[in-house]
């Protein structure tokens, strides 16, 4: 029902910055919240940032204020700006969307994930 496509990943030197984008398509009226996650090899997928349709934003404490998330008014596009990047930030970054229980029943979904975009930070 909702498709997500991440972009903006690549190679960046330590201390540099990178901006990721997530474009949502389909029945985006059924999205209640969106978020950024990352997964490094051999590790669990972890939350980076989350934002609700109402505009509330939460960041993972481990990011130590180095990330900023934003979105357009309809949550059709989500952004993640990362600064002062470190080698340990190397991971596949995913965006996701959570469905609202108040959406039309035939359009409802629980969680949708993008394919991910690789971010590699060199020393």
Integer-rounded radius of gyration: 14 Å
Number of H/I helices: 0
How many beta-strand segments?
Answer: 11
User: Which oligomeric form is depicted?
Assistant: single chain
Overall 3D shape: elongated
Give the helix/strand layout.
Blueprint lengths: L1 E6 L2 E4 L4 E9 L4 E9 L6 E7 L4 E3 L7 E5 L5 E6 L8 E9 L11 E3 L3 E6 L1
Parallel strand pairs: 2-11
Antiparallel strand pairs: 1-3, 3-8, 4-5, 4-9, 5-6, 7-8, 9-10, 9-11
Features:
single chain; 123 residues; mainly beta; 7-stranded mixed beta sheet; 4-stranded antiparallel beta sheet; 11 strands; 0% helix; elongated
Structure description:
It is a single chain. Strands 2, 4, 5, 6, 9, 10 and 11 form a seven-stranded mixed beta sheet that branches. It contains no helices and eleven strands. The protein has 123 residues and is mainly β.
